[in-house]
C-alpha cells in the first residue's frame, strides 16, 4: 500500500470521505487502468450518500470488462464492499453496514451469506418484517438443489433471531423448515427450537403454530433420541388447541414408546389430560387412572435417587388426576406423601449446594444486635412503635409526636383479650412462639 493509499485509508476511518475520494480521483487520472481504484471511489461516493454516482462508477467499468474478466472484477468489488461492511458492523454502525450489503445484494442477489447478514442487521435495526424472507428470496435459495454455499455458523444464529423477532409470521415456519433440512446436524437444533416453541405455544398462546414447528422437525425422520420429548410437547400443544383427537392419539404414542418409569408416568398423565378435557371417555379415564396409580406405586418401590431435574419436576402434577377422579383421601394420601419424599430426595440431589445452604441453621439474632430480654412490649398500641423499644428511649418518650393523642382515642386492645403489659418479649427465638405469650402459659412452659 502506497503512502497516498494509507492516507486515503486514514481519511476513511476518520469519516472524511471527500478527501479520500479526491485522492482516488487523482490516482485514476494517473493510472486509469488500475480497476481497484474505481471500486474504492464508488464506495466513498456511497458513504457520502451519492448512490447514483457510486453505481455509475462501478457499472461503467463493468461495461468494459471482457467475459472472462467480469467474474473476477465482480468478486473484487464485492470484497471491497464486504470489508467495509464488516468494519461497520464491528463499530455497531448497523445502518451503514445494511446499506452497503444491500448494494452487494444488487450485484450478487444469490449470495446467501450476505442475505442472512442483511436479515440479521434488519433485526438489530428493528426494521425486520417476516415478508423480508420472501422478498429477499432466502427460502427459495435454501430449497435450491444442489445446495449453494452458506455460512453454517451464521445460519442457525439468524434462525434463532427470526424465531425471537417474528415467531408467529407464516414465513418463519417456512424458513425454519428450510434451515433444518439445510443444516448438516439438525439434531443439535432440537432444544433451541423447543425453547422457541414453548414461547410460541405457552407465552404467546399459539399452540397450533408451536405444533407446526415441531411437526416440521419431526418430519425430518432423524432417529432422534428426543423423539419422545417431541411427542410429549406435540400432545400438549394439540390438546391446548382443543384438537383433542390428535392430542390423545399423540399422547398414547408417547406413552407406548416410553421405557423408563418417569417417562411412562408423564405419558399416561398426558393421555389422562387429553381424555378428561375432551369428555366422553369415562371408561378410558378409569383405566388410565389405575395404570397411573400402579406406575406411581412402582416408582415408590424403586426409590430412584438420580432423576434429572426435568424428570423430577414432571412428578409434581400427575397425582392430581387421581384425587380429582376418586375422592378417597385415606387411600391416596399415603401414596402422595411417599411421592413427595421421592420428589424431595431428587430435588436435594441435583440442587445439593442450595439445599445445604437453605438447610443450614440461622445465625442467632442476638449476635447481630437484639439483646436477649432487651425489648419489652409495654403497651400494644396501634399506629406507632411505643412498647417496642427499651424503656426511656426516644420512641416511648412523651415528646415523640407519634405518642400524642390525635383525634378520638383508639379502642383499647385489652377489651379484646390482650392485657396491657401482659406480654413480654423475653427471648428473640426463631422457629417458635416462646417469648410471645404471657408468663407461665403453656407455650413458655418447660414442658412444651
Tags for this model:
22 helices, Serine Threonine Protein Phosphatase 5, Tetratricopeptide repeat
Task: Walk me through what this model shows.
This protein is an all-alpha fold and 448 residues long. Among the domains are: 1-108, Serine Threonine Protein Phosphatase 5, Tetratricopeptide repeat; 188-257, Serine Threonine Protein Phosphatase 5, Tetratricopeptide repeat, CATH 1.25.40; 285-351, no CATH class. It has helices at 3-14, 17-30, 36-47, 51-63, 67-90, 94-107, 112-124, 132-135, 138-142, 154-165, 170-182, 190-203, 207-218, 227-240, 244-257, 261-278, 282-302, 309-313, 319-325, 329-350, 352-359, 365-368. Helix 3 (36-47) runs antiparallel to helix 4. The chain is elongated, with a radius of gyration of 36 Å. It starts with a helix and ends in an 80-residue tail after the last helix.
The CATH fourth-level homologous superfamily of the domain at 1-108: Tetratricopeptide repeat domain
Tally of helical runs: 22
- Uncertain runs are 377-389, 404-411, 413-437
User: Would you identify the CATH architecture of the domain at 1-108?
Assistant: Alpha Horseshoe
CATH class wording of the domain at 1-108: Mainly Alpha
Radius of gyration over all CA atoms, rounded: 36 Å
Could you describe the largest sheet, including whether it forms a barrel?
A: none
Q: N-to-C SSE series?
A: HHHHHHHHHHHHHHHHHHHHHH
Percent of sequence in beta strands? under 5%
- How many beta-strand elements? 0
Q: What is the CATH topology assignment of the domain at 1-108?
A: Serine Threonine Protein Phosphatase 5, Tetratricopeptide repeat
Amino acid at each position: 500500500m502506497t503512502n497516498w493509499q494509507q492516507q486515503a485509508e486514514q481519511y476513511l476511518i476518520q469519516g472524511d470521505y471527500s478527501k479520500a475520494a479526491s485522492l482516488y480521483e487523482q490516482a485514476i487520472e494517473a493510472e486509469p487502468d488500475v480497476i481497484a481504484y474505481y471500486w474504492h471511489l464508488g464506495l466513498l461516493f456511497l458513504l457520502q450518500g451519492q448512490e447514483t454516482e457510486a453505481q455509475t462508477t462501478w457499472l461503467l467499468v463493468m461495461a468494459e470488462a471482457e467475459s472472462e474478466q467480469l467474474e473476477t472484477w465482480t468478486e473484487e468489488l464485492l470484497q471491497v464492499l464486504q470489508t467495509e461492511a464488516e468494519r461497520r458492523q464491528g463499530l455497531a454502525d448497523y445502518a451503514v453496514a445494511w446499506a452497503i450489503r444491500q448494494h452487494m445484494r444488487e450485484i450478487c442477489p444469490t449470495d446467501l451469506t450476505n442475505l442472512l447478514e442483511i436479515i440479521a442487521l434488519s433485526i438489530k435495526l428493528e426494521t425486520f418484517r417476516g415478508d423480508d424472507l420472501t422478498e429477499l428470496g432466502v427460502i427459495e435459495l435454501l430449497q435450491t438443489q444442489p445446495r449453494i454455499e452458506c455460512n453454517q455458523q451464521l445460519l442457525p444464529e439468524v434462525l434463532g433471531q427470526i424465531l425471537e423477532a417474528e415467531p408467529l409470521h407464516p414465513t418463519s415456519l417456512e424458513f425454519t423448515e428450510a434451515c433444518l433440512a439445510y443444516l448438516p446436524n439438525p439434531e443439535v437444533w432440537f432444544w433451541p427450537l423447543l425453547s422457541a416453541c414453548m414461547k410460541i405455544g405457552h407465552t404467546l398462546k399459539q399452540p397450533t403454530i408451536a405444533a407446526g414447528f415441531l411437526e416440521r422437525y419431526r418430519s425430518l425422520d432423524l432417529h432422534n433420541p428426543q423423539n419422545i420429548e417431541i411427542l410429549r410437547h406435540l400432545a400438549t400443544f394439540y390438546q391446548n388447541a382443543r384438537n383433542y383427537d390428535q392430542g390423545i392419539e399423540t399422547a398414547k404414542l408417547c406413552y407406548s414408546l416410553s421405557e423408563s418409569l418417569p417417562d411412562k408416568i408423564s405419558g399416561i398423565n398426558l393421555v389422562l389430560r387429553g381424555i378428561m378435557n375432551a369428555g366422553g371417555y369415562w371408561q378410558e379415564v378409569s383405566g388410565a387412572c389405575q395404570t397411573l396409580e400402579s406406575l406411581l406405586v412402582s416408582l415408590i418401590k424403586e426409590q430412584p435417587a438420580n432423576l434429572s431435574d426435568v424428570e423430577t419436576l414432571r412428578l409434581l402434577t400427575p397425582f392430581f388426576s387421581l384425587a380429582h377422579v376418586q375422592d378417597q383421601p385415606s387411600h391416596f394420601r399415603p401414596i402422595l406423601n411417599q411421592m413427595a419424599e421421592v420428589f424431595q430426595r431428587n430435588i436435594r440431589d441435583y440442587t445439593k449446594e442450595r439445599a445445604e445452604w437453605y438447610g443450614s441453621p440461622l445465625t442467632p439474632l442476638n449476635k447481630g444486635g437484639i439483646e436477649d430480654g432487651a425489648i419489652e412490649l409495654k403497651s400494644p398500641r396501634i399506629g406507632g412503635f411505643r412498647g417496642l423499644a427499651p424503656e426511656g428511649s426516644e420512641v416511648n418518650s412523651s415528646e415523640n409526636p407519634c405518642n400524642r393523642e390525635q383525634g378520638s382515642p383508639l379502642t383499647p386492645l385489652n377489651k379484646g383479650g390482650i392485657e396491657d403489659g401482659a406480654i413480654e418479649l423475653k427471648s428473640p427465638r426463631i422457629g417458635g412462639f416462646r417469648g410471645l405469650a404471657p408468663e407461665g402459659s403453656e407455650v413458655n412452659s418447660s414442658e412444651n
